[in-house]
Amino acid sequence: MSFLSQGSDWDFELLARYDEAIADIAHNKYGLDTYPNQIEVISSEQMMDAYSSVGMPVGYNHWSFGKQFVEVEGRYRRGQMGLAYEIVINSDPCIAYLMEENSIAMQALVIAHASYGHNSFFKNNYLFKTWTDASSIIDYLVFARNYIAECEMRHGVTAVEETLDSCHALMNYGVDRYKRPSPISAVEEKRRQREREESLQKQVSELWRTFPQLQPATQRREEDGTFPAEPQENLLYFIEKNAPLLKPWQREIIRIVRKMAQYFYPQRQTKVMNEGWACLWHYTLLNDLYDKGLVTDGFMLEFLQNHSQVIYQPPFTAPFYSGMNPYALGFNMFQDIRRICENPDDEDREWFPEIAGSNWVETVKFAMESFKDESFIQQFLSPKLIRYFKFFQIDDDDHNDYVEVAAIHNEQGYRKVRDALAEQYNLSIQEPNIQIVRANIHGDRALTLRHQRSSSRPLDDDSAREVLRHLHRLWQFDVHLESVENGSVVSHHSMPPEPAPTVSS
Amino acid sequence: MSYIIDRRLNDKRKSTVNRQRFLRRYRKHIREAVNDAVNRRSIQDMEQGERINIPRKDLSEPIFHHGPGGQRSIVHPGNKEFHPGDRIMRPEGGGGQGSGDGQASDQGEGDDAFAFEIDKQEFLNFLFEDLELPNLIKRHLEGAQTFQTKHGGIVSQGMPAKINIVRSMRQASMRRRALTAATRRRIRDFKAEREELLQKDQSPQRQARLQELDEQIAKLERRLDRIPFLDTVDLRFNHHVKVPVPVSRAVMFCIMDVSGSMNQDMKDLAKRFFLLLYLFLQRNYEKIEVVFIRHHTSAKEVDEEEFFYSRETGGTIVSSALKLTRDIINERYPVAEWNIYAAQASDGDNWNDDSPACAKLIEEELLPKLQYFSYVEVMPRAHQALWDHYQSIMEKHPTAFSMAQIDEPGEIYPVFRHLFKKRMEDA
Question: Could you report the per-residue pLDDT of B183-212, keeping only the tens digit for each?
Fold first, then answer.
């Protein structure tokens, strides 16, 4: 076998040769299951564009994307940051961007990382399988963009922008966590959208009817007058369906933002796994290329240097420490699973009897397919890795004027550290638990939200107030937010603010 | 199966709309920064971008998140010295070490200002916001006496010296091909037929046909020969047009009243007016000099800094500045070599007996030398004697003299346009 290339230059033919060589190993040797790949070569400017639209290849227009662009552009021009080597989109075919400035070693790394690593993760992880629909996302994005552009033409840029601002503030509370959303399809959306506009308004008007005798028997109101019957965690969904005064196009925009939130929700829950998986494969695949004698030593050196930068975990004492590096944790965990399968020691046999000594490819695939960050760490973080990272757990209680080291990387601490680290990736604990408990449909139409405090952690008041302002803009009647701890209300926000008798818009 | 696509030629400015939306949303901040920049910068330094800082809190996109407080456990990597049960005093200010912004900032230092750059065009747009800076293209201005010969395409008429040989030959070649195509095709057909006949056994009929063919071919070839190799209709000539070029040098006199009655606001108004004039001239001339003359009872040539920002008190004698202008022109700016513009800003105050003298000075001594004299009054009040006298000049010299009153920044551009309208339309 001769080298695929010498030197660092690349051309399209060479990219195709590398892609073919990588695909051969990925599919035939390891049996990775991927969507077809669409590899797009772009310039750094286009990369900045892609960056600032949070990786959506087609995005609707909004100032917040402009803000991101301006920031990325400024920092890039001043040399404060390099651009990411790659952006990959969960779509079918799976779109990955390569930057033209990169050398062939980097391009090969990105192809292996994005087009085979991330790609197979998107296709096989249960969250992505359940919550996203890779084949229709691009069409849907185009639909959303056109719809919002049309709204801007009909109702003015400012009105649309305000609605979007409010939706974005609540975006994290626009996802269904437990039931599978219906698949999205642009054609279907368009067809149903008009229909929905009409019927939705009718339905809402029905709910807010003031003459009880005219109500149809099948009313959603509960006997004791509480509505909704059960607390609602999907705030945007509730508003879309029930806000009394929203225009049909505003409900449609809420729906679009909801769909976006839903689409990105699995990515937020699998950062460590997704990146770890992609790093595992670029590392494995490129090493295989080297073993087959297809790439040069220089290629490997450049690759390894970049690889070790990507998976570097600074200790907490480093001035640039900013929490766990998901690449480092994920990559090391997958590598560790492989080690446990291939060379288990007694500790591993004790901790992981079911996987020690098994086929490593099957095992990492199983791990990738069936978990999210929280459960993945809970399941697979080994004592060896805890020692490797020298993890320690700090307990911070605001009743004390000190923080306490609760556990370190020793026999007594492994499980505690592992539990605590897993919790750190549990979105439902990291995000305040806020649900809609009551819409006062008989009275002043006020909406009440309940924040269930866990571990006495309060909300950040300033931002909560701002978000309530946005919620109030959508609901258009009084909005209350109460924080509840041990069954009693400990703090309370209202919009418009309680003591002020006047209604501000 | 993979598809590799080159997208580098696709639109690079996908984010333009979003960027504009962003600028629109924060126009208040940007306008402030631009205003600061105007006051800080020199007039001749206006045409560049600016760095804008916006406090980060004004830009935040709020979401529900936890504030400091409560109980939490955090896992960090890199333990060197801690044992279970160790207690570490909380850093000053409370709140614990992981107050939630750990992942928000990936830079070492927390930067609380959001900084970005706007380019020159955007800077000017914000500077003259609502004013719509006109597209000041190069125009023929009065006093532009020199011409430049420029290539003006290819024409079919012209003098022999300007024949464009390549284009003429190409034309001839095209004509020959077009005119001979049918004939050549027929010759080809006849020749083919002749070849065919020659291959076959001879017979009287075939002999006759061959004869006929030879004649036809000879006839057609003669016809071909008659088509001229080069005809007069083929000739193409380089065309040159004379484009008037403005005299490349201009001098701009900024004359401002700095007597006690002019406050800083008025001066800022005046500064913007001078600035517009400067930008306008800059687009028309290669080299511009600016002369700053300020006056109260006596006039003085000063630098820009002093012109706009030093304080003076006292009465007002406008003619002193006009005289100084005249003297400087005579001394340094010969009319033949310079386009001379003068712009005067004042609050309208003048020592009464001086106004007729001013009018006379402008009419007799300055206007013959100037391209244009513009006068703005930066004071919202009743006009005084100076205005009346100037009015009479304007009536007599409508193309070279103009005047207007400005009350607030928003009016500057309309007034400017009004003042320079004739110029732009005459061209």
Answer: 999 999 999 988 888 888 878 888 888 888
The mean of the pLDDT values for chain A is 86
Is it the case that residue B97 has pLDDT exceeding 50?
no
Same domain, B317 and B285: yes
Of B68, B62, B66, the C-alpha closest to A433 is B66
Residue B117 has pLDDT above 90, yes or no: no
Tell me the whole-structure pTM to 2 decimals. 0.69
Which positions ≥6 away from A6 have C-beta within 8 Å? A296
The backbone torsions φ and ψ at residue B90, rounded to the nearest 5 degrees and listed phi first, read -70, 140
* Beta strand pairing call for B287-295 and B299-302: antiparallel
B25 Cβ under 8 Å from any chain A Cβ = yes
Instruction: Give domain limits for chain A.
Output: 12-125, 311-429
B91 CB within 8 Å of a chain A CB: no
Co-location of B280 and B390 in the same domain: yes
Q: Looking at the structure, do residues B251 and B334 belong to the same domain, yes or no?
A: yes
- Does B215 share its domain with B233? yes
Q: Rounded to a whole number, what is the distance in Å from the CA of B77 to chain A's nearest CA?
A: 4
SS3 content of chain A, % helix, strand, coil (to 5): 55, 10, 35
**CA–CA distance, B390 with B366 (Å, rounded to integer):** 13
Three-state secondary-structure class, residue A96:
strand
CB contact under 8 A, A36 and B3: yes
- Return all residues near B267 (Cβ < 8 A) that are at least 6 apart: B256, B258, B308, B309
Q: In this complex, is the C-beta atom of B226 within 8 Å of any C-beta atom belonging to chain A?
A: no
Q: Does residue B321 share a domain with residue B195?
A: no
**Is the separation of the CB atoms in B243 and B160 below 8 Å?**
no
Q: CB pairs below 8 Å between A and B: how many?
A: 267
Domain containing residue B357: CATH number = 3.40.50.410
How far apart are alpha carbons B350 and B4 in whole angstroms? 76
Q: In terms of CA atoms, which chain A residue is nearest residue B117?
A: A74
User: Do B376 and B403 form a contact (C-beta atoms < 8 A)?
Assistant: yes
Same domain membership, residue B256 and residue B203 = no
B85 vs A contacts (CB less than 8 Å): 404-405
- Assess if residue B296 is contained within a domain: yes
Query: Percentage of chain B with pLDDT > 90?
Result: 9
- Asked whether the predicted pLDDT for residue B55 surpasses 70, the reply is yes
Q: What percent of chain A has pLDDT over 90?
A: 50
Rg over CA atoms, chain B: 39
Say if residues B56 and B116 touch (Cβ distance below 8 Å). Answer: no
In a domain, B3, yes or no: no
- ∠ Cα B230 B231 B236 (to 5°): 90
B351 is in which domain, residue-wise?
247-426
Q: Over chain B, what is the mean pLDDT?
A: 78
Residues B329 and B357 placed together within one structural domain of the fold: yes
Would you say residue B277 lies in a domain? Answer: yes
Residue A451 is predicted with a pLDDT of 93
In a domain, B76, yes or no: no
Tell which of B106, B127, B148 closes a domain: B127
Same domain, B183 and B39: no
Which among A242-256, B83-97, B139-153, B244-258 has the top mean pLDDT?
A242-256
- Give the closest-approach CA distance of A487 to chain B in angstroms: 17
| Domains in chain B, number | 3
Domain boundary among B103, B127, B151: B127
CB atoms A52 and B114 under 8 Å: no
**Strand pairing of A479-485 and B237-245?**
unpaired
